Automatic annotation (TrEMBL):
It comes from Candidatus Phosphoribacter hodrii. This is Nucleotidyl transferase AbiEii/AbiGii toxin family protein. InterPro entries: AbiEii. One of its GO terms (molecular function) is transferase activity. Keywords: Transferase.
């Protein structure tokens, strides 16, 4: 049996602090170790000469907007270099090699890339890399995409870390995060099983003011890029809630979201529609979303 790491080293201290934090918050220790590894890679990216070539998106970015959520990958939009496996592998190796006093050791020899083709939504390169933290053996992957638009452009983002402090790097603006998820919901219609997208929209709307014109412009930008036609969610997802309830309930239970999301998918969908559909209309106004009152004012 491997002895528990002591607090004599940065790796041991981080391991034990993450273990204690996970137990206090009722989360899985492995989940927090993985999230810490993702944060460690991003901290190295922020210090690198490549920081301006990548924009953070996806699940890790949600920690800057709302509650962080479990994920095993980092989603980055890239520019300034080729969409090629060898190029992406080399950049991940270089970033992982940057010294940082967080106890993590990345194994540059473990870097392995592959092309991603996720239906029509995503094309890019997935790079796998292993790391250690004290006695923990960890694996993450970095998903690198190319060519997606960002309106009006990336924003400086402060990403909170599990054990305190922040990572400062370029990220998607909140209205672009919302736009990508809402356009995906329209495109997939009632067959959509991307429950996390609905939860993310719900979480952002719970905590952040959003300008309706910004959201509408972002929606139009994403729709144009994807060749999608915008229409109200209430229309695109009519009849979905009842059929989706069993799958939603099972996924919600697995993700342990009992205290943060509605039990009924209909209630979640109604909240998302109430937020999204005014911006999906023909004439967006100068109103702003008020998260406390959950309405456009």
């Amino acid at each position: 049996m491997t002895p528990r790491p002591t607090r004599d080293t940065p790796a041991g201290r981080a391991y034990n602090d993450l273990r204690n934090l996970a137990r206090r918050q009722g989360r899985d220790v492995a989940e927090y170790l993985t999230m810490y590894t993702l944060e460690g890679f991003l901290a190295r990216l922020a210090l690198s000469t490549q920081a301006g070539d990548f924009v953070l998106k996806g699940g890790v970015l949600m920690a800057a907007f709302a509650d962080r959520r479990p994920t095993r990958d980092i989603d980055l939009l890239a520019s300034g270099f080729a969409n090629e496996i060898a190029e992406c592998e080399g950049r991940v190796r270089d970033i992982a090699n940057i010294p940082f006093d967080d106890g993590l050791t990345f194994d540059r020899s473990s870097v392995k890339g592959e092309f991603i083709r996720d239906e029509a939504d995503y094309t890019g390169v997935r790079v796998h890399i292993s790391a250690t933290l004290a006695s923990a053996q960890l694996g993450i992957h970095v998903d690198i995409s190319f060519g997606d638009p960002i309106w009006p452009g990336p924003t400086e983002t402060d990403l909170p870390r599990l054990l305190g402090g922040t990572v400062q790097l370029l990220g998607y603006p909140d209205h672009m995060v919302l736009a990508e998820k809402l356009v995906t919901a329209i495109q997939r219609g009632t067959a959509n099983t991307r429950w996390r997208d609905f939860v993310d929209v719900y979480a952002i709307a719970e905590g952040r003011p959003i300008a309706q014109r910004d959201l509408r412009k972002s929606l139009a930008t994403v729709a144009l890029h994807r060749g999608a036609n915008l229409r109200p969610l209430a229309q695109a997802l009519a009849g979905m809630a009842e059929a989706a309830q069993p799958q939603w309930a099972a996924w919600r239970r697995r993700q342990r979201l009992d205290g943060t999301t509605p039990e009924k998918f209909q209630d979640l969908l109604d909240a998302v529609i109430r937020f999204a559909d005014p911006a999906l209309g023909d004439e967006p106004t100068s109103r702003a979303w008020n998260p406390q009152r959950r309405e456009w004012l």
